[in-house]
Amino acid sequence: MTARLQDRTAVVTGADSGIGLGIVDRLTGEGARVFVATREPDALGDLLERVGVTGGRAGDLGEPDVAEALVAAAVAAMGHVDVLVNNAGGGVIRPTMEHTEDTLRATIDNNLWTAIRCVRAVLPHMVDRRHGRVINIGADSVRTGLMDHAMYNAAKGGVHAMVTGLAREFADAGITANTVAPCYVRTPQLAELLDSGQAPPRLSEVIAQGTDIVPIGRPGDPSEVAAAVAFLAAEDSRFITGQTIYVNGGASMG
To answer: Is this model's pTM higher than 0.85 or not?
Structure first.
């Protein structure tokens, strides 16, 4: 693998599993130094043992001031931050009218508020340096309308919409902002649940629908999402901003 990200630094949120871990491995594999963020302190130790991970911090990024502390720690550890990958998320997937106030709040907090707070925390630093890459992880379901995803899509739709405004507002500061939107991705954790036979029938139905609409005929892999993130983090993407790149095997087009 080439070292096209040599000398670049990145903050990756939601880094301890699935897509986030795939992104960490891809960025470090291409030479970047990475500062990781995870909600659970217990997961941080294992992350810090990975090659190329410079440091990390645990905390709930949906809460005020946590993102500011994350960025400050990353700058202290790495000297600067070139790339922010807003991967932290995890919505409650259920029929719209079965949501409660708590599940609605968790879905919005985990997906949209985490991204908003991290963007606002890192932008002053990037503006001062006249350089930055903001990469949000969105969801192809915003376009395909998978069953039980309406409230999740409300949160991820905000993540998608954010980058167009950021791209225009901060273009003259040398900052690009884009979204990578995957379809259903077979993460190791989800694969283990499905293979165990313990997945709820409704979840299995949602996943089957998410796979059936993919012309390539399979779910995505975390490494394929990470490849798109690595491209956007690199210098070759300097003229791409305000875009959503769908990593979806053709599930939605146009």
So the answer is: yes
Within-domain flag for 183? yes
How many domains does the chain fold into? 1
Catalytic residue among 35, 152, 170, 184: 152
**What are the distances in angstroms from CA 208 to CA 19, 97, 185?**
20, 22, 12
pLDDT by residue (tens digit) across 229-238? 999 999 999 9
Q: What is the DSSP secondary structure assignment for residue 235, as one 8-state letter?
A: G
* 224 inside domain: yes
How far apart are the C-alpha atoms of 139 and 136, rounded to whole Å? 10
Q: Is 246 an annotated catalytic residue?
A: no
Report residue 34 as tokens.
């990475």
Number of neighbours of residue 69 by Cβ within 10 angstroms: 13
CATH number of the domain residue 133 falls in: 3.40.50.720
Count other Cβ atoms within 10 Å, centred on residue 77: 15
Separation of alpha carbons 159 and 128, rounded Å? 24
Residue 3 lies in a domain: no
In terms of residue numbers, what domain contains 130? 9-247
> CA 133, CA 167: separation in Å to the nearest integer?
10
